[in-house]
Write a structure and sequence with these properties.
mainly alpha; single chain; 160 residues
């Protein structure tokens, strides 16, 4: 992991995460079997809505590193919610793999010529997002620091 962190600085990880989230947000509306975009299916809006939390975490992380600030309880809450969102990312990855594997079931049907390239692109982006998210968690721990549970109220002024 140390070698991977040296290969990708934290700024690259944040930028690649943003680009990957934007691309997957657009591709979440794409139907692989039909080669069309579906904007009226409510299921297609799950990923873009969840990615708002991811964008917020990336912004908070960038701000904390830029200002040389310590971690705080709101950032911890964001990170913990992102742990749950990573499970959704895993589900979406395995769903794409299942769609890609099901190609043989539909060999008698006409599938678009873009099925394999777009499916592999989406699967690669989803896997990249999972890796980048795990790297972001590691960078938070290394650059910003651990969450201090015993000293939660260190910045709270009780007289205000």
């Amino acid at each position: 992991m140390k070698y991977v962190l040296q290969l990708f600085p934290w700024k690259w990880v944040l930028r690649l995460s943003i680009i990957t989230l934007l691309l997957l947000g657009i591709l979440s509306f794409y139907g692989l079997y039909t080669d069309k975009f579906y904007f009226f299916k409510p299921d297609n809006y799950i990923f873009p809505l969840l990615s708002i939390i991811h964008f917020t975490f990336l912004y908070v992380m960038w701000f904390k590193i830029k200002e040389n600030d310590l971690s705080d309880p709101p950032m911890r809450t964001l990170e913990y919610s992102l742990y749950v969102i990573v499970l959704v990312y895993l589900y979406k990855f395995f769903e794409t793999v299942q769609i890609l594997i099901s190609y043989n079931e539909y060999e008698n049907h006409v599938l678009p010529s873009s099925f394999f390239p777009i499916a592999i692109l989406i699967m690669s982006l989803q896997l990249l997002l999972l890796v980048l998210t795990l790297m972001t968690f590691k960078y938070r721990k290394v650059v910003i620091g651990q969450y201090i549970f015993d000293d939660m109220n260190q910045h709270v002024d009780s007289w205000k």
